[in-house]
Fold this sequence. Notes:
This protein is of the alpha/beta class. It is built from 16 helices and eleven strands. The chain has a domain at 2-266 and 476-494: Amidase signature (AS) enzymes (Alpha-Beta Complex), CATH 3.90.1300.10.
Amino acid sequence: MSTDLHDLGVAELAAxxxxxxxxxVEVTQHFLARIGQHADLGAFLATDHEVxxxxxxxxxxxxxxxxxxxxxxVPLAHKDVFVTRDFPSTAGSRMLENxxxxxxxxxVSKLAGAGMVSLGKLNCDEFAMGSGNDNSAWKPVHxxxxxxxxxxxxxxxxxxxxxxxxxxxxxxTDTGGSIRQPASLSGITGIKPTYGxxxxxxxxxxxxxxDQAGPMARSALDCALLLSSMAGPDLDRxxxxxxxxxxxxxxDLIAAQPGGTGAKGQKSLQGLRIGLPSQFFGAGCxxxxxxxxxxxxxxxxxxxxxxVDVDLxxxxxxIPVYYVIAPAEASSNLSRFDGVRYGHRAASYGDLTDMxxxxxxxxxxxxxxxxxxxxxxxxxxGYYDAYYLKAQKIRRLIAEDFQKAFTQCDIIAGPVSPxxxxxxxxxxxxxxxxxxxxIYTLSSSLAGLPGMSVPAGFGAHQMxxxxxxxxxxxxxxxxxGAAHQFQLATDWHTRRPPGI
Length: 500
Ligand code: GLN
């Protein structure tokens, strides 16, 4: 049963491809057929068999010529927030209906250069604003574990596609949790790197001081393989990208596998101090989630890690701070959609102002409109100091609290989401209920720290629960290493949704 191609992860597929046991064209055809069979999940917004098979054919030529590299010929799919030349790029918005970019996002071209084959574009919340993927202008995404529930958001299509084995890996973006939270709710692994680790060039901008790209896959090892190619400086095109050399995140993990050389590998988690902020384990978190998280932490203890209590006293303030700063930046970023240069333009209008008004009202959905209005308000004269500036000051304090905590521990752990996935539509009429569900992911985003979600068991309704691991700046390798050791000892990340 588990010899099907779609059951293989990135590393396993790469090995089969390198051994020429299967061709990239065969693998790609297999996944494209599955995407068609599972179209009801709503995970994909665009596919193009001709484009994908041409890319696969090119990978096969490289393989036939003897080229070997860890991602060559392996398929993936991109969140629709990344612009792509070969597929439409809508960012989940009517504003960008049928939009074709003249260039590829840096992350997209880096993965293509590594030989990955794109299966298409993945559904997401409009302009990445949301926590349930029910803010997509096109259609909701269904959680493969229970199709009546959300997959999380805003990278909901990216998470559902991996969980349903429609792609071995996907890209996501995380502004306030949009990689970690859907990974948690859909039972897969995802990492948001340190702010700046991956170039933002060609990512449709939401909140530029927070936006960060990252990989989503079933295992930490597969995420490491992708991140090694995605990361790296891109200073000519994104001045906030980190000027640090690319790292081979996967080598240490592979070395640490049973049978690996072990030379560079971490054999166990002996000596790793995991900090547990009391604010992440309080009454706000549902009992089923806490139980799964605590059981996972007990597993880390068995692997040699020690648990220490830490304090992140401003955690609760991360919600109001984020929901001031993110809309402020969004209102500025989205002002470029004016119907003039690109994007939707109303079919009929009076003067120029009327053209702006009609084009923007027709193109933007409710949540995006709400955030533009909040953002414009908090940036306006007379409110700037009271809201925006205040939020920036608290943001700095939140970052300092993390640095204090990191004097006591190496990694901070807790839940990703206070509950398992909720029913589609349950929070649609109550945006604040959605905002509150971001409580555990926002603070590390505001601080610019790397964080990941690792499958850690199941909670209510047999829905997946993710464990969040937050590292200090530039410590992605440490997070991936700890997650990998956990995944060598547990099998939560290999579980499959019923009927998949
Ligand atoms: N749920 C958060 C929001 O709606 C985070 C979104 C994201 O990370 N893109 O803004």
